[in-house]
């Protein structure tokens, strides 16, 4: 008959469906196990969130570096390919007046 008693030794009879615990002790054990599981899940989620933030941060800094570099490359290319065009202004004196007409 001692093998029928609750595994915790509370004096009540255990049940094989509840791993040898009485209903009261089984609820306590189940609650403890569930709380531990919830805590572990929360810690895992927190770790995952931190890793995702670190990854996003590294991606945004790489993107900023890439953007700065491409901006520099663009300026360098523009400088090489830019053609200097000088526009010469010529002025023509209109007959019979002191006015000048500027032509391009």
TrEMBL record:
<keyword id="KW-0863">Zinc-finger</keyword>
<dbReference type="GO" id="GO:0016192">
    <property type="term" value="P:vesicle-mediated transport"/>
</dbReference>
<dbReference type="InterPro" id="IPR002653">
    <property type="entry name" value="Znf_A20"/>
</dbReference>
<feature type="compositionally biased region" description="Basic residues">
    <location>
        <begin position="77"/>
        <end position="86"/>
    </location>
</feature>
<dbReference type="Pfam" id="PF01754">
    <property type="entry name" value="zf-A20"/>
</dbReference>
<dbReference type="GO" id="GO:0005085">
    <property type="term" value="F:guanyl-nucleotide exchange factor activity"/>
</dbReference>
<protein>
    <recommendedName>
        <fullName>A20-type domain-containing protein</fullName>
    </recommendedName>
</protein>
<keyword id="KW-0479">Metal-binding</keyword>
<dbReference type="GO" id="GO:0008270">
    <property type="term" value="F:zinc ion binding"/>
</dbReference>
<keyword id="KW-0862">Zinc</keyword>
<feature type="compositionally biased region" description="Low complexity">
    <location>
        <begin position="55"/>
        <end position="66"/>
    </location>
</feature>
<dbReference type="InterPro" id="IPR045046">
    <property type="entry name" value="Vps9-like"/>
</dbReference>
<feature type="domain" description="A20-type">
    <location>
        <begin position="1"/>
        <end position="34"/>
    </location>
</feature>
<feature type="region of interest" description="Disordered">
    <location>
        <begin position="53"/>
        <end position="104"/>
    </location>
</feature>
<dbReference type="GO" id="GO:0003677">
    <property type="term" value="F:DNA binding"/>
</dbReference>
């Amino acid at each position: 008959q001692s093998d029928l008693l609750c595994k915790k030794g509370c004096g009540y009879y255990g049940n094989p469906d509840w791993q040898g615990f009485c209903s009261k002790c089984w609820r306590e054990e189940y609650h403890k196990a569930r709380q531990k599981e919830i805590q572990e899940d929360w810690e895992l989620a927190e770790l995952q969130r931190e890793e995702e933030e670190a990854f996003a941060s590294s991606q945004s800094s790489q993107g900023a570096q890439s953007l700065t570099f491409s901006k520099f490359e663009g300026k360098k290319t523009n400088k090489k390919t830019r053609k200097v065009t000088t526009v010469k202004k010529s002025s023509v004196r209109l007959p019979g007046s002191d006015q000048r007409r500027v032509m391009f």
